[in-house]
Design a protein that fits this description.
Nucleotidyltransferase, domain 5, five-stranded mixed beta sheet, single chain, 10 strands, alpha/beta
């Protein structure tokens, strides 16, 4: 399939979980970034895969159409179609993958399969001042917690990861225990701003290398709540802000102390965070504070590129396009892995 130009127009599609998104980028510059969030999962307290894939089927065409209209472009202008190849929910991934392949075949232009996790890190390339290579990125989301060494736009190496649960999952599960609606992580963040982070002490797991563990923290929170509710059934309601602040403090401290150790050991001072949990206000503040202390250059993607979106898929696809890293029509989505 021929390259349209040295300055490609990329149509990017993201359907890894429960957000249907499309973006249009010209020569690596964002022209449009549209996200349709699926509200149906809130009543179930979590994402239902079958409902997610059905909603993607309903949303994908209107979202793509909106992105092209906002960018002032048509399908005839598109050089390549990028899509999230994985990881993610297989049914959701298939919707975006097959949609992209169909357009590719109809228009005779290439497709670009993009790794969702690398794209979260690649969101840094959308900053006005991106990180210099090499840099370390703390990738924190509902399903993943990793420290990644980035040597160029496309080469990334995991040097640490969670051995059990992700930080974002810990936030959401803690919120569910407290009685907050899904998704609970952002609500914990909001309530924590009104509380005392030192009110209650929760354990920080000691793990080898630059790895993390949050399963023990979840168990500790469960036993803590059970004990205090047995003594006072209104304990959570009376102390909600302090509970949230203490949980948030523990999770953020766990993340930052490991990231700081990795940066010092590797003597890297270009440090970023990415993924949905990078929207957490305390994590953002602690990155800046720790950065000043250690004379780091710190980076956080714009807020709209922290959670799942197609803009991050598009910017990574831009660099894949430049080296002709295209997918074939036989390539299938993969549910796991960097």
């Amino acid at each position: 399939m021929p390259l349209n130009s040295d300055t490609p127009l990329i149509l990017a599609i993201e359907t890894s979980c429960d957000d249907t998104a499309a973006a249009v980028l010209y020569n690596g510059k964002m022209l449009a970034n549209i996200v349709a969030t699926q509200k149906i999962h809130e009543q179930y307290g979590g994402v239902i895969p079958e409902l997610a894939s059905r909603a993607h089927q309903q949303n994908i065409l209107p979202v793509v159409d909106s992105a092209l209209k906002q960018a002032g472009k048509t399908m005839k202008d598109v050089s390549a179609i990028a899509y999230t190849q994985g990881p993610g929910l297989i049914g959701s991934l298939l919707v975006g993958c097959q949609f992209a392949k169909g357009l590719s075949a109809a228009l005779n232009i290439p497709t670009i399969g993009v790794n969702h996790l690398k794209a979260h890190i690649g969101a840094h390339y959308l900053n006005e001042v991106p990180p210099q290579f090499p840099f370390l990125c703390l990738l924190v989301s509902g399903g993943h917690t990793q420290i990644v060494k980035v040597t160029n736009h496309l080469e990334m190496e995991i040097i640490g990861s969670t051995i059990d649960d992700a930080a974002g999952e810990a936030f959401d599960k803690a919120a569910k225990m407290i009685g907050l609606p899904y998704p609970g992580g952002p609500l914990i963040d909001q309530l924590a701003n009104k509380g005392n982070p030192m009110a209650y002490k929760f354990p920080i797991a000691k793990v080898d290398g630059y790895n993390f563990s949050f399963s023990g923290l979840k168990t500790s929170i469960l036993y803590f709540l059970q004990k205090h509710k047995a003594e006072d059934p209104q304990f959570i309601e009376k102390n909600l802000n302090d509970i949230c602040a203490s949980i948030r403090f523990t999770i953020v401290k766990t993340l930052m102390q490991t990231l700081e150790r990795a940066a010092m050991d590797l003597n890297i001072k270009e440090i970023g965070i990415a993924g949905g949990v990078s929207a957490n206000t305390l994590l953002r503040d602690e990155l800046m504070t720790t950065g000043i202390k250690n004379k780091w250059s710190t980076y956080i993607p714009p807020f709209e590129y922290c959670t799942d979106n197609a803009g991050m898929i598009g910017i990574l696809a831009h660099y894949q396009y430049l080296i002709a890293d295209f997918a074939s029509l036989n390539d299938m989505p993969y549910p796991r892995g960097l």
